Amino acid sequence: MELHQRQQFDLLLSMAVDRFAERLEQRNEGAERAQARLAADPEGEGIWLTEFTQAVFRDALLDNADGAAWVLAALAARPFPAALLTRLGTAARVGDAASVLAQGAFAALLRDRTDEELTRRATYGAHLLANQT
Predict the structure, then answer these.
(1) How far apart are CA 116 and CA 105, in angstroms?
(2) Confidence band, pLDDT 50/70/90 cuts, at residue 130
(3) Under a CB-based contact definition with an 8 Å cutoff, are residues 70 and 76 in contact?
(4) Considering just the CA atoms, what is the radius of gyration of the chain in Å?
(5) Among candidates 56, 82, 117, which has minimal Cα distance to 48?
(6) pTM
(7) How far apart are the C-alpha atoms of 49 and 43, rounded to whole Å?
(8) Quick one: three-class SS letters along the chain?
(9) What confidence tens digit (pLDDT) does each residue in 7-53 have?
């Protein structure tokens, strides 16, 4: 992948992590609860990882074969998300399978990075509270 494409992907991921973490923090009354719920059930109430990922792909115009190929190129070194095997089972076209794979791989990375961001926010929030007393 070209360096400028890698930079664009990293910007997209950073924006998605920031927005997802913010949304989870608000919906789940804090970073710690959000992190626990994200770990327990990424598709559960107040989390909806796949739905958020689909929205990111739509908003960034990546919900097509070319967008899927771009995301897959950026994530080529990541392990294959096992949860995707069932979703890929009946894809009618190669482009459909690429899109499912790209969204699933992006969602797995988004989940990991959001978990890290929520940890940072929880730690930083606790640090701020300790300094106020």
Answers:
(1) 17
(2) low
(3) no
(4) 16
(5) 56
(6) 0.78
(7) 6
(8) CCHHHHHHHHHHHHHHHHHHHHHHHHHCCCHHHHHHHHHHCCCCCCCCHHHHHHHHHHHCCCCCHHHHHHHHHHCCCCCCCCCHHHHHCCCCCHHHHHHHHHHHHHHHHHHHHHHHHHHHHHHHHHHHHHHHC
(9) 999 999 999 999 999 999 999 999 999 999 999 999 999 999 999 99
